[in-house]
């Protein structure tokens, strides 16, 4: 029987008090709620842009078996496991204790991630898709948060996934988002860049030389 399955008190005991600062005590359950609030904002941003791009015709779609497997895996790791962890005691066997300052670092990662997530959707506008797709009249965006890096939205998801690990003190629910998204990122990014090169040719190749994937190039090529 997992900890806390009788009335939730054991669960409370395992999570309680593991992240407190002197004079500013915060239980990890509170951190669960802070994470949940960020999560609602994350889903809200996605929802707005799904609606905004809905009517724009797609001309290229590369949703193969690998993408079809990885997308649900990320949904489980980044959405279902954290929610299951917060709402039930069943993952308590994988709890651990975090130093008190780490959830605060997680909050900073989360705020930065949400800002970048919003900005990258806003800058891509109707060119955004959840998977590898191009739309009718697709434009190559090179400004805003796309000016120095090619994958700011993926950078934002990495930031959010690290926040998940720093705020939910559980090996499974904390790091499943980062683990699953990292696999998707390393599989998808070369394919996405190939698709963009095929569609935008020299323009995208030059853009690749001026930018980094997740971090700005220290020295831009002439
Ligand atoms: N990899 C980008 C975009 C993720 S959304 C990022 O992390 O910010 C994925 C879709 O965005 C792709 O299917 C592609 O159609 C589109 N896309 C990617 N980079 C783009 C760019 N610079 N300009 C326009 N569309 C882009």
Short description:
The chain is mainly alpha-helical and 222 residues long.
Reconstruct the topology from this structure.
Elements: H1 9-15, E1 20-21, E2 24-25, H2 28-53, E3 58-61, H3 65-87, H4 101-124, E4 133-135, H5 152-167, H6 171-210
Antiparallel strand pairs: 1-2, 3-4
Helix pairs in contact: 2-4, 3-6, 4-5, 5-6
The structure holds S-adenosyl-L-homocysteine.
S-adenosyl-L-homocysteine is lined by residues 120, 124, 127-129, 132-134, 140-141, 146, 151-154, 192, 196.
Mean residue pLDDT = 88
Please, how many helices? 6
Q: What is the N-to-C succession of helices and strands? A: HEEHEHHEHH
Percent of sequence in beta strands: under 5%
Explain this structure to me?
By secondary structure, this protein is mainly α. It is 61% helix and 5% strand. The protein has 6 helices and 4 strands; from the N terminus they run H-E-E-H-E-H-H-E-H-H. It has helices spanning 9-15, 28-53, 65-87, 101-124, 152-167, 171-210; strands at 20-21, 24-25, 58-61, 133-135. It has a two-stranded antiparallel sheet. Strands 3-4 form a two-stranded antiparallel sheet. Helix 3 (65-87) packs across helix 6 and helix 4 (101-124) runs antiparallel to helix 5. The chain is globular, with a radius of gyration of 20 Å. It starts with 8 loop residues before the first helix and ends in a 12-residue tail after the last helix. S-adenosyl-L-homocysteine binds next to helix 4, strand 4, helix 5 and helix 6.
